[in-house]
Amino acid sequence: MSLRDFILISVAFGGIIAGIFLPQAAEPLDGYPRISIMLMLFLSFLGLRTQEVLRGVVRLRARLLVMSVGKLFIAPLVTFFLFVLVMPKFALGALLLAGSPVGVICAFFALVMRADFTLALTGIVFTSLLSPFTLPLLTSLALPFLGTDAVGMAHFSPLRMSLDMATLLIVPYALAQAAQAVFPKGCLKIMAVRFWINTATLGLCNLAVFAKYSPTLRQSPDLLLPGMAAALLAGLVFFLCGAILSWRWPLPQQVSMGIGIGVSNGVMAMILGMEFFGITEALPGAFFAIPTVLVLLPTRLLIRLRTGNSYELPQPDEVAKVQGT
């Protein structure tokens, strides 16, 4: 684990603890969670170029289709029915997490692992544009399956969720593209410090979210450890879905697929759980910062399994020797 990974997790947990035990500190942050995710997405999308994304879509259309179907349908359904069996309390929250778009950190991980960066990049954008339509549909189908007494059944609106997600995802992307066109030098300066802005924003977002549910968590502290376990289990299921769906792919693309499906937008899932349902549905997304970082461990094991002799993806000129296709 790098120093930045440690700082990110520490700040995320610090916000959770402060929200639970110092809820008064969050009083000025009413409505901040929605602002925070738009800010983080804006900062993350600053590095994306529409032209690059379009070229990647054309070149990788078959792989991108599999990634999108896997991320937006297969992984959510597998995760939901598994959680119905083993952790039914968190089944809906796990579905929200599974059906959220690919997390923007996926592109960074693809670079670190020498995987297919273009596939990771296009997967982020494509699933971000499609998830406002697919996740509300899956949620509306899952609620009746859980029973007529499911939390939020009477108040859930697929149309409202779709509009909320579209606003949270598409507006930051459009603003980021406009900013790059008008203020390219300023964007470069912002990108140089965006990790620290994102980290602080995530901590404040957790503070605001958990302050809202502070009374419930104080009365039921036993929700915290199961919530963390749910996030870890969900992350493992996501990664396995990606690795299995791409088993016969060239290794760099399989690694991107595993990371892409394995890294969900946890903040998005947390906010959706908070706004439409309750604390139980928000917890898997809130704790997903942990499996997001830990996804590098099963990724290295996958590389070892495919290459037979290394935990590192080979250099580009060596990849053909271990692709297996």
Notable characteristics:
76% helix, Na+/H+ antiporter like fold, mainly alpha, 325 residues
Overall helicity: over 70%
Q: Which strand-content bin applies to the residues?
A: under 5%
Q: What's the CATH topology label?
A: Na+/H+ antiporter like fold
Question: For the terminal residues, how far apart are their CA atoms?
Answer: 32 Å
Number of helices: 17
Tell me which oligomeric state these chains represent: single chain
CATH class: Mainly Alpha
H/E element order: HHHHHHHHHHHHHHHHH
Which value, in Å, is the CA radius of gyration?
19 Å
Spans of at least 5 consecutive residues with low confidence: 317-325
Which structural category fits the helices and strands?
mainly alpha
Looking at the structure, what is the overall shape?
Answer: globular
Assigned CATH architecture: Up-down Bundle
Major sheet description: none
The overall average pLDDT, rounded, is 83
Number of strands: 0
Number of domains: 1
